[in-house]
């Protein structure tokens, strides 16, 4: 399952010196059927890219949604680039894609995996989306030392990778190192997402793997406690680890989330 990633030149040069890995090119998938009035903006996870959610994206497109999977800033090139990206860069990129989708479609659902789930929830707190579907959203850290990342980033540039937590024999093609500056940005994203949860009014579904070895159960607890104005459903993924969008419960995620998108878009149309 290992995948050797390219390394940025040393000393670091401007972001963008390393081409985007073709496996992580962004996706913009037209709906295979339906009226074309809905879009799903789907957000990948930390140090990974669109490849980790592409099967989910294609399945929802086949079931009638336009699906947009952007490549987030600092991703898809080399881990050093992610050390130069802020939480505001990442949050702003997702909101920009949601805003664009809202200009072209009557209904927009935000979806995401891990950090992408936190970013989807953050966007839903500030944009009039029809629904939110998240897979193992990262609203808390599993490693206590991660909270020290804002200070540690000035001492150490990277740590061991947090990738390929998958029961199935596949790889998400994530970075071979975890950028500490990126972890600091992720912590700020988590705090902003949790603060915004009470503002979300769209229905939320969370697909949760009890065997997740990356994001702790406290993330689900924070999500459930923070949603005060939104209907919330949790779906357990008993056969998958953290990257469940590439794991053995993907068929369950696909079928349930496709029905969820249909339901929330019909509900929004009646308002």
TrEMBL record:
The keyword Hydrolase applies. Residues 40-246 form the AB hydrolase-1 domain. The keyword Hydrolase applies. Coiled coil: none annotated. Keywords: Hydrolase. Pfam families: Abhydrolase_6 (PF12697). GO terms for molecular function: hydrolase activity. This is Alpha/beta fold hydrolase. It comes from Micrococcus lylae.
